[in-house]
Amino acid sequence: MIDHSTGLQLSDAEKRLLDKTPDADRESRLQALMDKLASEQNNATPLDNALTALEIAGLLLDLDRKADAWQYARPAIEDLIAQQAFEDAALACQYTYLADQDDAIAAIGQAAWLSVTYPVDPHLTANILSHIIDETPDESDGGRFFSSVSFYYEHVVSGVFTCVLLDLRCFG
Questions:
Q1: Is the full-model pTM beyond 0.85?
Q2: Which residues constitute the domain of residue 8?
Q3: Which residues on adjacent β-strands are paired with residue 3?
Q4: How many domains does the chain have?
Q5: Count of helices and strands (H, E) across the chain
Q6: How far is residue 122's CA from residue 125's CA, in Å, rounded to a whole number?
């Protein structure tokens, strides 16, 4: 699936976020996940709890309940990183950014760092980098740089040949 507003290929998690499920179905799924999280809080692994919280955050974003989504996405980041679920941690950072709270810019920066440092779906990486491009002033070189990196991930890393990750630290 392609996001026609940006022309970027979507990751599986982003496809689920953009599906056309009716709100009533999302609400019922949301309630079931919240019940599951409450009942399993003491019995489930930290990873299972974090993944459930991440799914809840995605549904809350679908329902445009950004502040509520932040309350689930933001705390999940540390647990996901601790469990070395780096792709899910990057997605949690992206959800924190999309929740549009005070730490949104820091969250998308963390998402970018995770997505270029660890094995993360290249389509998710490109979409995370596109958020940085959107936040970068038009007259700066940063937008052009991240646009190039995003193109690299979208077309080279996700293509037939997997290339060595670009080391962003070499750029000042």
A1: no
A2: 2-120
A3: 8
A4: 1
A5: 8, 2
A6: 5
